[in-house]
Amino acid sequence: MSSLDAVAKDEVTIAGTNTVPISNNSFKISHWWYAICPAQHTRKARGDIKMQFGNALLLKFIAVIFSALALGTVLRLVAQRGGSTKTANARFSSLKTWWGLALLMSLAALMGKFGIILLLAIAGALGLREFLKLIGWQVLGTPTLIALFGSVPIYYLLVWFGFGEVVRWTAPVVFLIAIASTRSLSGLMEGYIRTTAGAFLGLMLFVYGPSY
């Protein structure tokens, strides 16, 4: 009898002995623990990384990207000879950005699901930080900022643990309730609607949106 058959019949074999019944509640608890078990997801991440490094097509694609960047860098350096310092600094800054993006995207692709989630989390946090600067740190207040930036790792950890469908439907409501209640309980009532709406928009644009 396979393990799936044993589960289907609410029984389990212990060390080759006779099968013993298990309750549905016990199975549900073990199922949820299996879903959130860090060791399980760590093994899965390692397997994804090994598989991606063995993907010849992906490796060729990354090699083409970096070859094109290297060629473009050489051409830009040659074209800049004799140019102004201001223009040279602007072009070098642009090159650094492109190389950084290429490196991050390549590492994320090679690391599989974990790499993509990590990349989205970092990009989301950085984008959210820049967006919230437009609203103002002082206007938002420390409690609101803690709630906002704390939502980013919690959100992506839930996605990593396999609860993507759940957070897809519940995250917008939870985000809004968390921001609104944090500001209310902290007594941050000045510009309440505008600030709460702006903070919520930031989470939706830079955290929820890219991961959808």
Structure notes:
There is one protein chain. With 212 residues, the chain is mainly α. Helix content is 83%, strand content 3%. It contains 10 helices and 2 strands. A two-stranded antiparallel ribbon has the order 1-2. Helix 4 runs antiparallel to helix 5 and helix 5 packs across helix 6. It is flat, with a radius of gyration of 24 Å.
Quick summary:
This protein has 212 residues and is an all-alpha fold.
**How much strand?**
under 5%
Question: Could you report the average pLDDT, rounded to the nearest whole number?
Answer: 76
Strand runs, count? 2
- Which residues form runs of ≥5 with pLDDT under 50? 1-34
Q: Which structural class matches the secondary elements?
A: mainly alpha
Which features would summarize this protein structure in a list?
212 residues, mainly alpha, two-stranded antiparallel sheet, 10 helices, disordered N terminus
Topology:
Layout: H1 3-8, E1 11-13, E2 19-21, H2 24-36, H3 38-53, H4 56-80, H5 85-110, H6 112-135, H7 137-140, H8 142-160, H9 164-185, H10 192-211
Antiparallel strand pairs: 1-2
Helix pairs in contact: 4-5, 5-6, 6-8, 6-10, 8-9, 9-10
